[in-house]
Amino acid sequence: MAAQTADLTADLTAQLAPALAREEQQDPFVIAGRTFTSRLLLGTSDAPSLDVLERAVHASGTELVTVALRRVEAASSSALVEVLDRCGVQLLPNTAGCRTAREAVLTAQLAREAFATNWVKLEVIGDEDTLLPDPVELLDAAEQLVDDGFTVLPYTGDDPVVARRLADVGCAAVMPLGAPIGSGLGIRNPHAIAMLRAAVDVPVVLDAGIGTASDAALAMELGCDAVLLASAVTMARDPEMMALAMRQAVEGGRLASRAGRIPRRFSATASTPMAGLPEL
Amino acid sequence: MQLTVNGEPVELPDATTVAALVAARRSGHDRVAVAVNGGVVPRSTWETTDLAPGDTVEVLAPTAGG
Question: Which of A72, A78, A261, B64 is the most exposed place for a label (fewest CB within 10 A)?
């Protein structure tokens, strides 16, 4: 099945490539000076095995993958990083589990030591039940980390004002949630995401809440620059197949956004011309 | 000397370096980070940093995350 999926990926990429390549040339996805050809960021949590994760990473086409730091006794096998290195992806450490700016800044500094990168997915959680971000601590941590030379990608709510504040202190992108982490509820407030997109000049990465491919496509249609998801792929019945679905959804949504959709109308418009209709 | 390593009380010989502790704990991980008493200990100073009685040490390694 892996080989069949790989062939399918090649076929579909070949179909999409000319239009996508043209669009990516005109308006590339750039974070902190690095250009990405994939607009799908993948989290690595909850994969049933490293083998499945590796196949999902390949099928997704991702170039940027999130990882975390934990006490060595509780951490994943050291083979995790070997597998991700073999995939050729850039690692994006997160600060998951941090509840204060102090914890998040220290975690980011530790991640910089461990992974030799100054990129960080900044998470500061303000509520244990909803795992919603704490905007006050988040902004404080973001400002400190930017000052310390980090490339900061903050996980934030869908509030355009907070997003603008994060961009103003120098975050390289903003990553609003579509719905609570792991909920798979999709984008609960599309209007807020569209407003947030319009409110900032930095890249917008829809992070958290994606459940299925249509959610990822909607994020792109709303103008997001990329999508970050984890459990929607890693906990799917077939993670490799879902990774391919997400890749195509992101590409399709991107193209639809750039192609310009037709206006919504409340009445029908005949798509077959009435001129020349015979009298029968 | 008595220290706390990753939340557990630990007895270590006096003047154990961070490098020695990491070597004993790393479990095959290359990308390890260490905090002592809430501050990062850069890898470049592991060999020259002695742990002290009462230190609180965190030895961290990569894990899967979203």
Answer: A261
Which stretches of A134-212 are DSSP H helices? 135-147, 160-168, 190-199
Question: What would you report as the CA-atom Rg of chain B, rounded to the nearest whole angstrom?
Answer: 12
Give the gap in angstroms from C-alpha A68 to the nearest C-alpha of chain B: 5
Comparing C-alpha atoms, which of A254, A270, A246, A184 is closest to residue A222? A254
Interface ipTM: 0.95
Q: What is the pLDDT along chain A (280 residues), one digit of tens a residue?
A: 455 555 555 555 555 578 888 888 889 999 999 999 999 999 999 999 999 999 999 999 999 999 999 999 998 888 999 999 999 999 999 999 999 999 999 999 999 999 999 999 999 999 999 999 999 999 999 999 999 999 999 999 999 999 999 999 999 999 999 999 999 999 999 999 999 999 999 999 999 999 999 999 999 999 999 999 999 999 999 999 999 999 999 999 999 999 999 999 999 988 898 899 999 9
Provide the shortest C-alpha distance from residue A254 to chain B (in Å). 23
